[in-house]
Amino acid sequence: MTSLVDRYVHTALRRVPEQQRADIDRELRASIADAVDARVDAGEDRDAAVTATLTELGDPDKLADGYAGRSGYLIGPELYAPWRRLVTTLLTVVLPIVVVALVILDVVDDSSIGDVIGTAVSSTLNIGVNMVFWTTLVFVIVERTGTVKDKLKVSWSLDDLPRYEPSRVPIAQLAAGLVWPALLIAALLWQQFGIGETPVLNPANWSFWWPCLIVLLALQGAYQVWVWRRAAWDRTVTAVNTVLELAFAVPLIWLLNSDRFFNPAFHSFAKVGSESDVEHWLTLLITVVVLVGTAKDIYDTARRGERARRGL
Prior knowledge:
Blueprint: H1 4-13, H2 18-41, H3 46-57, H4 60-68, H5 77-108, H6 113-145, H7 171-193, H8 209-230, H9 235-257, H10 278-309
């Protein structure tokens, strides 16, 4: 019967390149024998000493990776931080923009509300999974080959410590504050003047309300730049933010709940069943989102301004 040591060594060697096996076989057996002899000299039974020694050595596959100089992980600690930062950016910034663009295309193409929701869900899952998979694959290749590894900012120094300026708006927040108004303005213009035959939103509002909302969205983008350059959160910022948020939210909610928001000629909001009204529920959903989002933004800005004023 094969001994416990033989079984352990054979298991470890199966993951080692052929040309290295003979040397590693001798080295591993010698280190096991020395450890067992040391335990026996200390008074342990030989069988118990063998068991304890092999248990202490651990998983033979991991031991083989160490002998072969092979990493036993998908992405190592040197590349994990840049991988995590890139994946986080893709999922929180790029993915929402891509999904919103696809949803806008569906709306412009006069798709049903079910198709629009299906596009949003399937696109989020498919694109998100692909982003994570291909990013991870690239980092695995870099980890294994060392290609451009030295260019990926894997070393750290004190110069990398961020400068903590409580009043400064992070550049990511500035970017988001500019991207979303731009996307909403593009959506307003595209649904009216794009490739869709029937606009989703009421074209009668182009006499005043849609241009007014576009101006307010542009002002919100300018506000983000102003706050970023001002580098200060105070009551002036709170007041300007409150005025802009209410100036946009109040007419939008009024249009929604007075049946002036959607185009009466847009047929994708037809009734589904005898008691279900897609347009009614969509109006209610948008109203709730606008109310909650506006209240949260006003509260967060006011709270941050007060904390900055008190030096917290």
